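User: quick one, fold this
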Amino acid sequence: MIIRTVTSLAALPVILGCVYYGNWPFFFLVLALALIAVNEFYNMMMKKGFFPAYYVGNIITAFFVVFAYYSVKRNWEPAHSAILTLAAAIALIAGVFLKREKDTIVDVAVTILGMIYVGWFLSYLFFIRNLTEHGGYLFFLILTVWAMDVAAYFAGRLLGHTPLMPSVSPKKTWEGAIAGFIVCLLAAWIFSSTAQLELWHALILGGLIGVFGQISDLIESMMKRDAAVKDSSNIIPGHGGVLDRIDSFVLTAPLMYYYLVLFVLK
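Assistant:
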């Protein structure tokens, strides 16, 4: 717990500083997280006996991040969706060169899943940050997710006794999930002024983040359980891997972006 706390306190100002200043610091932060996370994902799949195309997956993941960064600066956002088609095509072509007599299509599918699961979904962080000058909406997302994760973790450890989904994650409990959801709503209320959100929009987003952030966490837990690993890696002292720390943003980042565009900024 001491190591976990020290690591969090050391990382917090770096992450928030990169979000606030944007530009290259934020770009390199997201790029580093995405590349580490996608390799953690592929390493887990290797333990399942799959052989993803590492080079293709890394290149396309990096391309998703780079394209998203430049698209918000040059109003290329409509082309962002078209890039997914190109990426999937390249991954399919890579399957021809994997040189496996069987399960090649599974390897291709795992390659595509990794670059979408990590690179594609995380690229939405650039779109959210670009909606305000210093990333107010992204601060809202990060702080509510962190509050939810901390509350779910401690409530689960101290009060939890009713398994949430034991077949997916035996340690997660209903008590932890409910506490995480409630604290996420409270955090949304507290940080609504940070993003200059009307309270009712903030509470709706808090509710969506409180539900889908935890579902997103369960998705990664399902992958880890299937691969028979406890953490995606041990790169972060006391926390496990990068994928373990960003998993809650996989679903919540695109969800928040489209909510803002469709209902707040319309």
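User: anything notable?
Assistant: Residues 2-264 form one domain.
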